[in-house]
């Protein structure tokens, strides 16, 4: 077994049933990422006349060193993980577990320790409402985009979770809305995770879009957010032709463009960060935020919580209260 079902080459000696199970063990996006990483590694090895799969610890360590400066530490760690996965699946000695590679990664992290990580800025609630208020409420593209912003922010959704929402995943309840996330990063088996959004102006925007798109297509199933094509190309309205689902790539471009209208240089992740940051600033307990955001790692969540509480729970607030107010002339 050589892990070729991930790297994209023929699957020698494996039955079709086994190949199908192996493919289904990981999400499509993860498999694509591994294949992309392996292609990068193979290209580098070919340019250096080095053996790629299996490779030696020295080869993998040299690749890591060569990537420094051009790729982030997180990206390099993912590349190493992909090479490690393919070696394990092929039954080879795993160079990623060697002391040489371990120390190389440690040195990389230490050398980058003083570099500020680039994170998408949180879209605060006031900014979200400013953005929504500035968008037409009756035009078809705008109605869809308003619903994307509302549900993405309120349910703290990832990009893929937004794109894969179906009409039937939005269910009305007495208290508000239930958004069913059928498959996500933290639910690879697709059991489904319900997320509640209490009644608010945001739920009204989401329901308005669900009602509109249901009437348009005459069905209560299918993509909640179809792709909007240009004239005569992939037209989705009026209700003729196939409905293409909005892709994550198109979603990223859309959100970046919308955020620029309120002078925010962010991304689709700004929606998720915004909701979590607002909840932290409001003093919502960490466990409740984690349940809503579906973070597996509390450490990652705390990065958002600490940012939200940077000023609201600042010890200097009490200190500065001891100072007399400045006298005005």
Question: What's the structural blueprint in terms of helices and strands?
Answer:
Layout: H1 4-7, H2 16-24, H3 28-47, H4 57-67, H5 73-90, H6 99-111, H7 125-133, H8 140-154, H9 159-163, E1 170-172, E2 176-181, E3 193-198, H10 201-217, H11 248-260, H12 269-281, H13 286-293, H14 298-308, H15 316-320
Antiparallel strand pairs: 1-2, 2-3
Q: Give helix % range.
A: 40-55%
Computed over alpha carbons, the radius of gyration is 24 Å
Terminus-to-terminus distance: 82 Å
**CATH topology name of the largest domain:** hpI Integrase, Chain A
CATH architecture of the largest domain: Orthogonal Bundle
Order of helices and strands: HHHHHHHHHEEEHHHHHH
Oligomer description: single chain
Question: How many domains, as an integer?
Answer: 2
Question: What is the CATH class of the largest domain?
Answer: Mainly Alpha
Tally of alpha and pi helices: 15
CATH H-tier superfamily of the largest domain:
Intergrase catalytic core
- Which band does the percent of strand residues land in? under 5%
| Major sheet: arrangement of strands | 1-2-3
Q: Major β-sheet, in short?
A: 3 strands, antiparallel
- Alpha-beta content class: mainly alpha
Shape: globular
In short:
With 329 residues, the chain is mostly helical. It has helices spanning 4-7, 16-24, 28-47, 57-67, 73-90, 99-111, 125-133, 140-154, 159-163, 201-217, 248-260, 269-281, 286-293, 298-308, 316-320; strands at residues 170-172, 176-181, 193-198. β1 and β2 form a beta hairpin.
């Amino acid at each position: 077994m050589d892990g070729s079902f991930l790297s994209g080459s023929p699957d020698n000696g494996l039955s079709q049933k086994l190949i199908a199970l192996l493919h289904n063990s990981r999400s499509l996006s993860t498999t694509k990422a591994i294949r992309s990483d392996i292609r990068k590694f193979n290209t580098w090895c070919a340019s250096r006349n080095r053996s790629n799969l299996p490779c030696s610890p020295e080869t993998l360590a040299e690749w890591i060193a060569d990537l420094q400066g051009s790729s982030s530490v997180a990206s390099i760690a993912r590349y190493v993980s992909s090479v490690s996965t393919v070696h394990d699946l092929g039954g080879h000695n795993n160079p990623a577990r060697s002391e040489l590679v371990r120390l190389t990664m440690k040195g990389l992290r230490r050398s980058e320790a003083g570099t500020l990580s680039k994170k998408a800025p949180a879209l605060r609630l006031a900014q979200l409402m400013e953005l929504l208020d500035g968008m037409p409420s009756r035009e078809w593209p705008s109605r869809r985009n308003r619903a994307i912003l509302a549900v993405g922010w309120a349910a703290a959704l990832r990009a893929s979770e937004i794109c894969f929402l179906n009409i039937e995943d939005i269910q009305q309840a007495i208290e508000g809305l239930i958004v069913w996330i059928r498959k996500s990063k933290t639910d690879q088996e697709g059991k489904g995770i319900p997320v509640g959004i209490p009644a608010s102006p945001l739920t009204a925007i989401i329901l308005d879009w669900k009602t509109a798109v249901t009437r348009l297509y005459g069905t209560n199933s299918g993509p909640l957010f179809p792709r909007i094509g240009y004239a005569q190309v992939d037209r989705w309205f009026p209700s003729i032709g196939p409905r293409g689902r909005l892709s994550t790539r198109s979603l990223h471009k859309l959100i970046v463009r919308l955020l620029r209208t309120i002078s925010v240089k962010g991304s689709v992740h700004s929606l998720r960060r915004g909701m979590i940051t607002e909840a932290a600033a409001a003093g919502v307990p960490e466990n409740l935020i984690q349940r809503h955001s579906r973070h597996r790692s509390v450490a990652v969540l705390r990065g958002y919580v600490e940012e939200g509480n940077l000023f609201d729970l600042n010890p200097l607030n009490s200190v500065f209260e001891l100072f007399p107010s400045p006298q005005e002339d």
